[in-house]
Amino acid sequence: MSMTRVRSGAGATSPPMEKTPTPATRMGPLGRIRADRVLLVIAVPGLLYFLVFHYGALFGNVLAFQNYIPFLGVSGSEWVGLAHFERMFGDPEFWNAVANTLFIATLQLVFFFPAPLALALLLHSIVGDTVRKFVQSVVYLPHFLSWVIVIALFQQMLGGAGVVNGWLSDLGAGSISIIGNPGAYGPLVVAQLIWKECGWATIIFLAALSQVDEQQYEAAAIDGAGWGRRLWHVTLPAIRPVIVLLLVLRLGEFLSIGFEQFFLQRQSVGPEVGEVLDTFVYYTGFAGGDFGYAAAVGLFKGVIGVILIYTANKVAHRLGEQGVYKA
Amino acid sequence: MSVTGAPAWMGRPSPAVRVVKAAALTVVVLLVIFPLWTVLATSLAAPENVIANGGWVIWPERFSFDAYADILQGGIITRALMVSAGVTVIGTALSLVCTIGLAYTLSRPKVYGGKPMLLLVLFTFLFPPGMVPLFLVVQSTGLVDQYAALILPFLINVFNLVVMRGFFQSIPQELLDAARMDGAGELAILRKVVLPLSKAVIAVIGLFYAVAYWNRFFEAIIYFNDQTKWPIGTVLRQYVTGGASLSETAGEMATASPQSVQMAVVILATLPIVCVYPFLQRYFAKGVLTGALKA
């Protein structure tokens, strides 16, 4: 059986010209299934997973159009059409969650997005291999810690009885209130995100920086360009496509500000500033028992998300870059 | 990427630049390490130390492992650690097997139904399952209160799948054809040719899965009614960030300060990650990840 199919070179990328009809292409569907049976069998568990947990969940969105009662199930619950969506548009708590989500997303874009680029430039400028590898190891680590741990660390450092307040009181400088202070919530969550993900996010910038042509630096240096001018005239133009691509993709995921981080801290500052769209879904559905309405809000966010990602990918393609889902 | 020593054109940076750079790097490194350090120090400090200093220490004047002894003598934390370990080991193994199987099939150029299968998978990238509908699926598949609820809904990560497929595609077709000529079947090719060549990418993706399983805490809150089945992350959230007191769990035997006990839980939840981290580290250097992230 192993001789039944002989494949030509590189598959997808090769032009469809050298068409020596292989046995596989001459077979009917049944023959092809039989020829590929081993490959198809090993794909089954993975495909089943996607069908059940992704497409099953996609189907579960019918809840958004029902007055869902767990006891009656999807088939027994009453259909309410767009009632949940009408309620949503008139619900001030929903709009509060939208406003908080947009506020935090904007803070993330302005303060988190450039941070890894700056850190990558710093890392890239380290000449010694050992030092650079050490610093890289350190700054990648927080990416692998869970949000529970990150928030526990921030409480330990910045909380009312934390390390920083201990120092301040030793200096007789009073105390700062950050954890649990609604006014400081926005900056706090962005600082947490930077602490956790900034190092990891440098990877892609570092990869881009390593591609920059050495000769351009050399030429610039010989022409008398100092550190600053080399950065401005050589480095940044060279990695601009990567920056633009990442920015476009980030805009596509504008609403995906994360969930666990906000779920963990929403209680400490209250829903006024702490409620974002995903926590709103959780508190309405799982804490409030209003599953239909929660599913409607989740579906609304999902649809906006698809539109954003789709648009961002179109833009990215326009810019001549490879999008994410066009693998 | 590996430039050893400065190229000639760079010249020597001025002392001022070097001082500023060194200072910036020191601050960055300290910002990451210092919080972890105080947590470790507090967990290891004797109660009188911790109380005298107002709840935390930077250096334990007298070391004490009481906090660890308190929580590891059985009870909620011990149990939760075992749940997390079990979910992580079994979950990672299942995830790898399913990811490799599907990724390999999708990486073969003319496999029957390849295109629709790929679209089916990639579409889920656009529209991740919502919290409520996914719960409905978990409920209707009878997974509530089952440890499998912490594994099956997260079996395959699309990103990991795409990376794995990309790697399999990069294996020269001639190698596979040669094995096929020698009479090897698809499974034998996968086992004897493809997998040995893919050790690095499998290690990295396996560690990604393991870290994700170990860190997952939210789902146990909604999928489990039975709190004794909670993994460590969920318990940690309850007692550390949720503000509940741990002293009850440690029981009357408690000899350490409550702060030390809390910090010991944080350390125990962090430790496995810090332990596997150096192994993951080896592959950063090999550029597996940069290649992966660009894919």
Automatic annotation (TrEMBL), chain B:
It comes from the Bacteria. It is a multi-pass membrane protein. GO terms for cellular component: plasma membrane. Keywords: Cell membrane, Membrane, Transmembrane, Transmembrane helix, Transport. Residues 81-274 form the ABC transmembrane type-1 domain. CDD domains: TM_PBP2. Gene3D superfamilies: MetI-like (1.10.3720.10). It is found in: Cell membrane. The keyword Membrane applies. The keyword Lipoprotein does not apply. One of its GO terms (biological process) is transmembrane transport. PANTHER family: ABC TRANSPORTER PERMEASE PROTEIN MG189-RELATED-RELATED, POLYGALACTURONAN_RHAMNOGALACTURONAN TRANSPORT SYSTEM PERMEASE PROTEIN YTCP. This is Putative aldouronate transport system permease protein. It comes from Thermocatellispora tengchongensis.
